[in-house]
Specification:
Elements (H helix, E strand, L loop, with lengths): L10 H14 L17 H9 L7 H8 L3 H6 L2 H8 L8 E4 L8 E5 L5 E5 L6 E4 H18 L4 H23 L3 H6 L2 E2 H10 L6 H15 L2 H8 E4 L2 E4 L6 E3 L3 H5 L3 H16 L4 H7 L3 E8 L10 E7 L6 E8 L17 H12 L8 E4 L6 E6 L14 H22 L2 H8 L4 H29 L10
Antiparallel strand pairs: 1-4, 2-3, 3-5, 6-7, 8-9, 9-10, 10-11, 11-13, 12-13
Helix pairs in contact: 1-17, 6-7, 6-16, 6-18, 7-16, 7-17, 7-18, 9-10
């Protein structure tokens, strides 16, 4: 039996690694980015993803992506992954989110019931260059700022708040003890309180944030039951609202799938999923019994992948638990980076999430699907989850939000990568900030061009779209 010994370089060796990386790859090298010659057709990349998705939901995905350049960007992680493969890289690797745009951050409850602000989407997570996540985050802020009608100066300031915030935060983590980095987290109530203390009177953005936190605290399985179920023969059952929600009992009429086939497969998945939980959480899950199942559409980029919600019951009908069962495929980054060490994509998602988040859902687990080459991960459907309404933000509010997203991303990277080496590479000046902001502006221009090409594909009939769903 062989054992793997983790390297333990000294602080000076880690700092030197960052400085040496500067010589190989100057921090300004990403500045002046242009799309590569022979760049893949963005519409063709979307079509590649559609090939493995539910055919009836593919037009829904297109309809959600065509709302604006911002929604298109949210659904275009595969497009940007193809572009990022050619950007200059310092060679300093972290666990990547893989899709670190500003709408993939939000609040949720920790196991201790505190509301935390953190990354909340890990479908594309994979080890890779730290620059990939920073680039996707920075570009998302420029695109969102333009979507909100900000002028060029304000859009640039928001992006710089993200890039500079990442650099300064990584410097902070580089000076912290190892366990302090691991325990670092953002309490959502404290974030809002700090925002409020920075002004003489609460701004509209602060008031909206407070209301969002209040609403998040109500978003649990009981609230989901009131929204998603009806009583049938004395039992709560999930209500169909096709194509967004299709209950198991309606699958035959809608998709010619016998409910008993679905139920049999679910019980197999449930058994395998339980085995991925720690013993205490497995024992907790065993206190619940299965009640009902439905297919449920989620997100923008994920539309068309298979996603289910399962209703379970604890001590009685007033003790529900909703779990989300979401399909996991290969990360879009695996087209260009080394393949995941995990054979099951669901395990890849779960492992990445646990490594990057300050605290993860107690029911987070994974399983192989019943069908060939289908994999899933499991988590609670609603556990005090909430998100910021980006489209109502003013420049000052978006800049503040960029700062807390940047801190969160740096903290996530510091948990898995070498914060000292990365901080040493980034340095104390703003050279990296300016270069990455320049990239973000250029990529926002490219995204707008891709969006127009996407709309042309819909209008020409190459792609089908259903709007407003």
């Amino acid at each position: 039996m062989s054992s793997r010994t983790a390297p333990h370089p000294t602080l000076e060796e880690r700092r030197s690694a960052g400085k040496d990386a500067r010589q190989r790859v100057p921090r300004s090298s990403i500045e002046g980015w242009e799309p590569a010659a022979g760049r893949p057709d963005p519409v063709a990349l979307i079509e590649q993803q559609n090939a493995t998705r539910e055919p009836d939901l593919v037009p829904v995905r297109h309809g959600r992506m065509m709302v604006s350049p911002f929604t298109f960007y949210r659904g275009g992680a595969k497009i940007m992954a193809a572009d990022l493969r050619l950007i200059p890289r310092a060679g300093l690797e972290v666990q990547l989110c893989g899709d670190a745009h500003l709408s993939n951050f939000g609040v949720f409850a920790s196991p201790e019931r505190a509301l935390l602000f953190d990354l909340n989407d890990f479908d594309e997570t994979l080890p890779g260059p730290f620059e990939y996540d920073v680039a996707r985050l920075a570009a998302s802020f420029v695109i969102a700022a333009r979507n909100n009608g900000f002028d060029r100066s304000d859009a640039r300031s928001v992006a710089t708040a993200a890039t500079g915030g990442y650099r300064s935060s990584m410097s902070t983590f580089a000076d912290m003890r190892t366990l302090d980095v691991w325990y670092a987290r953002l309490d959502a109530d404290e974030v809002v309180a700090n925002a409020a203390s920075g002004s003489k009177r609460p701004t509209k953005a602060v008031e909206r944030s407070r209301k969002m936190l209040q609403k998040a605290r109500t978003r649990d399985s009981l609230q989901a039951r009131s929204k998603l179920t009806e009583v049938v023969d004395g039992e709560h059952r999930i209500v169909s609202d096709p194509p967004i929600v299709v209950s198991a009992r309606d699958l035959m009429a809608t998709y010619s799938i016998a409910p008993e086939t679905v139920m049999e497969g679910l019980h197999t998945l449930l058994r395998d999923y339980r085995a991925t939980l720690s013993n205490d959480r497995r024992r907790l899950l065993e206190r619940y019994e299965f009640v009902d199942l439905a297919r449920k559409v989620v997100g923008v980029g994920s539309v068309g992948t298979r996603a289910w919600i399962a209703l379970l019951r604890g001590r009685d009908g007033d003790d529900p638990l909703f779990l989300q069962v979401k399909e996991a495929g290969r990360s879009v980054l695996e087209d260009h980076l080394p393949k995941s060490r995990y054979r099951q994509p669901g395990e890849r998602v779960v492992a990445g999430q646990r490594l990057m988040q300050a605290a993860s859902d107690i029911f987070l687990g994974w399983t192989k699907g019943v069908e060939q080459d289908r994999y899933y991960y499991w988590r609670q459907l609603r556990d005090m989850k909430g998100s910021i309404d980006v489209e109502t933000m003013a420049p000052s509010g978006m800049a503040f939000y960029a700062g807390i997203c940047a801190w969160t991303l740096a903290r996530a990277h510091a948990r898995s990568g070498d914060s000292v080496a990365i901080a040493s590479y980034l340095g104390g000046g703003d050279r990296f900030d300016r270069a990455m902001t320049d990239f973000a502006e250029r990529y926002a221009d490219q995204n707008e061009s891709d969006y127009e090409g996407f709309l042309d594909a819909i209008h020409s009939g190459r792609l089908e779209a259903i709007e407003g769903v």
